[in-house]
Fold this protein.
Amino acid sequence: MRTKRDNQQWMLDLALNMRGRVQNFERDDPETPARAHNYRMLPKMWRKKAEHDEALAKTAEKNGFKMTALEHYDHAVESYRMAQHPIYFDDNPSNFMMPARIKVQYVLLTPEVMSSLVEITETNIQDLYESKMDEYTIPEERKARHILLATSSDMDENAVKQIEEKMVLLQSRLENNPGLFAEMAKEFSDDPGSAELGGDLGFFEKGVMPQKFDDIVFELELGKISPVIRTEYGYHIARVDQINKADVTPISKVREELSAELRKIKLFDEFAVAAENFGDMVYSEYDSLEPVADRFNLTLFESDWISESGNTGNPILDNTKFLSAIFSDSSIQDRRNIEAIEIDTNQLVSARVVSHEKERLVDYSIVKDEIRKYLLNEQASAAAKEQGVSALRSLKDGAKLDLKWSTEETVSILERKGLHPEGLRAVFSADSFDLPSYAGLEADNGKYVIYKIIEVFDGSGEKDGVGQKALSELNSMIGQEQFKSFLAGLRERANVNINENYFNEQ
């Protein structure tokens, strides 16, 4: 028979308030009764044990054996607490549901897995090499000098004629003495970029200079003086100083590069055809993936258990389109192959469900430790708050309690010394005229903090209006940080041991 939670809670509350009872929230998990073949038997069995220990405690107390009584009371409380765990499990099934999950077989089609279907011939390589000849050809370069006598559109015919005649004379002198070219370029050339360099234009390919200039210079013999050349810039004389002949990268040096490029092209061509056949095949052979795996020489993968949320760490199994398809009713109920899904560029996957588990309640044995920790946290927090509120009330009534206070700190809005804004608000809300005054705060981590205000001051030493001013500034800071301090003396007085690691995980 299931023991009602409210009755058990009543018994637990009774035990928690037993006079002189020592409460320890860090007891080891008592051994589960051997006769409990079902977790629903546990509340009744733990209750009987608690009642037995409580009776022993009362007998020992009656006979004056206080330490023995305290020990039995402690065991009784622990048993009452253990009775709550399976009841909490039954009362909160949504907290302990294991989502539906499946195991799947799947195949993945990519261009890379089809490499065995691609054949590269020497003819293929030669054809690609010839089609890319421009990329592998280093064009001829020439290093030349020139002298420019510039003309412009606003010159009259006589002026242009004079420049032409002057250039003819210069050309004649240079033909007789080519070694004077640099010197004469510095003296006569109108090209500001090259004149100071003796007319040096550096290396250039054909097509860089004006066409008429190019045509003559790239036909000119090494060291020879060109005839006078007319361009849109004026009149030129040129001399070729160096020639770097055109060169072609031999096919032997780029064979691997060409082969890799061809393989990539053919892989994607083959993939485009295979992708269509792949999609048709997983549909037509809907009850198995082995035919498509054999056809394309694909690996048939099998997953571990996966849920609809994914989170497996495998990008294929975690793909939202894949999860939506594989968890569809037709996929689960009919065990049909899902349609080919493109999970990434040039990546197709198909899968089928091989095992399925519906959403279900997990076994109590799996989560009982989790439940124990959660309820211990709740009970510890409730005990800390109850005793903290009680201590705060006593202090405000003038009682002298033997508490171990933390080190004195002077705090302000600008210097909070680690206090949460809510803590500051509690401090500045306290009475500032009858000191010492006290304030309390239930922290987010289940702890209870008491503050002792021993002095209030501002820059002038006056108390009036300080609290209200501070409170006004504090209102915008609430809820931004986690509060981290706890009153060590209160915990010692309450005799409660708290699992700090568990709180830190929350």
Notes: The mean pLDDT is 81. The longest strand covers residues 234-244. The chain has 17 helices and 15 strands.
